[in-house]
Amino acid sequence: MVRMVEHRVEKPFSNVVEETRRLIGGAERNLVLLRAIGGVAVLFHCPSAEDGPLSRKRPDIDLMALSSEYKKLNGFIVSAGYEPNKRFNAVNLRSKRLMYIDPVNQRQIDFLLDYFHMCHTIDVKERMSIDKLTIPLAELLLTKLQIVKLNEKDIRDTVALVKDHSMGESDEETINLKRICDLCGKDWSLYKTVTTNAAKIRDFFVDNYEIGAKAKELVKNRLTTMSQAIESTPKSMKWKMRAKMGDSMAWYDLPEEVVRRAGE
After folding, report:
1. Can you give the pTM of this predicted structure?
2. What digits encode the pLDDT tens for the residues 45-86?
3. Which of 17, 147, 153, 189 is 20 to 30 Å from 42 by CA-CA measure?
């Protein structure tokens, strides 16, 4: 039996959390795999991010999809009330990035396809369906720790993720440490940034947040455990060859920030 694809054009919700849920649910009904990244994704998993010292503004929606589903994705997003940025999408489709505009709320929505690429590249496509709403927690944490120039919102999100989740070898409300170690053991550049940021957050930033002494100690211990596991992971030949060059040459990209619409 062939499932019908929705064609009725809807109006986006003003609330970004409600709208993200609407899009993910609508995409599933239209046989499109869509998962949240960014601050809204953290909020879906972290009670600590809802209010208090680790909460923050979340004005934007950022999503991941599969490049193999581009045509279905485009049709669904248009039916969901969005307008494609045709020039941007034509130029950036090959680099696996898309942009759509919500004309009702004057809001931009960004899509990354297959890979999360900013300062480093994280392959997500094979593990997109593990969680019902977001990319897996291990990859979600890495999207924060791969940022070379750490900012306040990503530090808050990192602390919330680590505070609210244990580290293990599964993905169900657990940060899959094996996955993080596998990725960092193959890519020296990612390893360099992730371990550097974990140490910075542990040693200099966690104490800035009034989350209680026990929670601070828990976050620090979990970041230490992660770093120790990464260090003890066997490294690939490619990793070892790049490690010999060290930081004598740039090991990261600094992507251009896409200009948001006025008011964002």
Report:
1. 0.93
2. 999 999 999 999 999 899 999 999 999 999 999 999 999 999
3. 189
